[in-house]
Amino acid sequence: MLLTDLDLERWEQDGFLVLPDLVPADACDELMTRGSELVARYDDDDERSVFTTDQQDRHSDDKFLRSGATIDFFWETEALDADGNPVLDGAVGFNKMGHAQHDLDPVFDRFSRQDPLPALVSELGMTDPLLLQSMLIFKHAGVGGEVISHQDATFLYTDPVTVVGLWFALEDATVENGCLFAQPGGHKGPLRQLFRRADGGGTEFVDLDPTPLPELGAAELVPLEVTKGTCVVLHGLLPHGSHPNRSGRSRQAYSVHLIDGAADYPAFNWLQRPNLPLRGFDNARR
Questions:
Q1: What pTM, to 2 d.p., does this model score?
Q2: Which structural domain, as residue segments, surrounds residue 253?
Q3: Are 144 and 50 in contact (CB under 8 A)?
């Protein structure tokens, strides 16, 4: 068994697990190198999409809505001027890369399906784990943006809720450079919102429960300072986020979100994968 009884008890109690040294440092380096290679190949077609945690900005962003089946790049707010022109190049101006590199790129595929990840999600109770979404999060020194407190199930909804996030520290993550903050036990609360495709096009938030999420800086949120190679496992209902990175050190991370194939994944979810079937940890497509 990869997880101890104490690990499983903490998972049930806290809604997250911190697993140091789950992946080797050289695998983290390989992933960052590959990310840099893909950034260098970026072809700026003037369809620049900015990633912010106020997802209301996504109403007319076709590039974002296509990205469930592609490898696309999303800019930091501070990297573009008022007219949408870059003031920083992509090497430091990108917020993240997503959302299907785990299926479309061999290096990301290998990292996302390496041992002991199949055993990990199995021990957490997933019967048919499917890799739905991946993000390389750059969090560049000085410009890395804030990620407000949120629940992953808001954006990747299944019935019942099954989404689990695997967040890998590719570099040391500290309070100074924008580590994760999470609310222990917060996964026991309700799902507050759904972010979904609107009937008339674009996207919308649908309110489900008025219970407020804890804001960054609230005492309920604790910092998850971790070292390179650590995997943080996040329950889909767990409130979590991160402060901006104003330090002189980057905080790259890689995140994979899985859902259980035994649950329903509604067509109203913003992330769709036309012509790109879901895969588990083997090569079979679903």
A1: 0.94
A2: 5-260
A3: no
